[in-house]
Design goal:
TIM Barrel, 383 residues, binds ligand LLP, 24% strand, eight-stranded mixed sheet, 29% helix, eight-stranded parallel beta barrel, Lyase, Ornithine Decarboxylase, Chain A, domain 1
Length: 383
């Protein structure tokens, strides 16, 4: 569990992100221990957090990177990742982004449509390059997560539908500047049970067997990301169950000789190592409610406002003998959705108290905005 150095915090302007680098290292160790098979490759989904200190740890741990934009490819290269360990996904790649990937000979483009495939082929042709490609398949699996972060259902915009796959594979195999090397899947995010991953394995086995019978094999199978974290009890469960996750694949997926299994984990890598630290500005007594108005808002952490997500809200130095009181913990932004929790039962709060909003390492700092002309938050590290 992360301990918060209150005295150090008192000298700082809030809100800011506090990253427990020691916890990040332990998390990366767990990933490496449980994915320790020669043919398993873990790529970090850099969209979760591009903080340079965090990227340095992830690079040192030997992970590759999953990018979804040219900007993310640049961030990965600037952080010293080898282009051979970069994969590039995304449903709407612009021409300059495709050029950037080809120029650096990245490991793989995860392609989401036949239209995109033709564009990559013609740009690669112009540049005298061959693009290594995996086709993103939409497997139509319900990941039982929030509908905003479900991606593998037929109704979602992602991937190539199963009915169209035969045709796209045929076309890809015949494109001069395309080297078809894999299939890619991603069924959603914040998945906290292993069952959907098992169903994904079954689906993949079915598909690879079908294509093997036709003589088509794939060097890489990429199962995407999605492993969830415990937002309610981050202190009890600071590291996700990587053992159960990787075992699910190990026990259920059938890989051919020399076939590689790729993973793209984001949230489970960095989620628990980050907290948003904020001061209580005012305790306001409404007609029927008490509001703890803090100096962090959805500009620093948008997940509660955007996905109705809940992050544990922990006073850093709780008054031990004070009665527990219910507060709506809200931010300063001029919108009612700027609320981190309703009826939070907390030890009595006063102006100046420090609060940690936990499990904010993934999709926190990177989704910050300057709405209301707010300053972007700084970051502090525990190493
Ligand atoms: N691979 C692909 C193709 C993805 O679209 C994503 C996430 C990942 C991997 C990484 O998934 P993870 O391991 O982090 O679940 N902003 C939202 C989450 C959006 C996830 C988008 N795709 C949130 O704050 O919950």
């Amino acid at each position: 569990m992360t301990n918060f150095p209150l005295e150090e915090f008192k000298a700082l302007r809030t809100p800011f992100y506090y990253y427990d680098i020691e916890l990040l290292r332990k998390t990366l160790d767990e990933i490496n221990i449980h994915s320790n098979y020669d043919n398993y490759h873990v790529h970090y989904a850099i969209k979760a957090n591009v903080n340079a200190v965090i990227l340095e740890e992830i690079r040192k741990a030997g992970l590759g990177v999953d990018c979804v934009s040219g900007g993310e490819i640049e961030a990965a290269l600037n952080a010293g990742f080898d282009a051979q360990k970069i994969v590039f996904a995304g449903v709407g790649k612009s021409d300059w982004e495709i050029e950037l990937g080809l120029q650096h000979n990245i490991a793989c483009f995860n392609v989401e449509s036949i239209e995109e495939l033709s564009v990559i082929n013609s740009i690669a042709h112009k540049m005298g390059k061959t693009a290594r490609v995996a086709l993103r398949v939409n497997p139509n699996i319900d990941a039982h997560t929030h509908h905003y972060i479900t991606t593998g259902l037929a109704e979602n915009k992602f991937g190539i539908n199963l009915e169209a796959l035969d045709n796209v594979i045929d076309l890809a195999l015949n494109m001069e500047n395309i080297k078809l090397q894999g299939l890619h899947f991603h069924i959603g995010s914040q998945i906290t049970i292993n069952e959907p991953f098992k169903i994904l394995c079954d689906k993949i086995n079915e598909l690879t067997a079908k294509y093997a019978a036709k003589g088509v094999t794939f060097k890489t199978i990429n199962v995407g990301g999605g492993l969830g974290i415990d937002y309610e009890n981050p202190s009890q469960n600071p590291i996700p169950d990587f053992k159960g996750y990787f075992n699910t694949f190990h026990e259920n997926i059938k890989l051919g000789d020399n076939q590689e299994l790729h993973f793209e984990l984001g949230r489970s890598v960095v989620g628990q190592c980050g907290s948003l630290i904020s001061r209580v500005l005012y305790v306001k007594h409404g007609t029927s409610k008490k509001f703890a108005i803090i100096d962090a808002g959805f500009t620093e952490l948008i997940r509660p406002a955007l996905y109705q997500a809940h992050h544990a809200i922990t006073p850093i130095a709780p008054r031990v003998d004070a009665p527990l009181t219910k507060y709506d913990v809200v931010g300063p932004i001029c919108e009612s959705s700027d609320c981190f929790g309703e009826d939070e039962l907390l030890p009595q709060l006063e102006r100046g108290d420090f609060i940690a909003i936990q499990s904010a390492g993934a999709y926190g700092e990177i989704m910050a905005s300057q709405y209301n002309c707010r300053r972007l938050p700084m970051s502090i590290y525990k190493r």
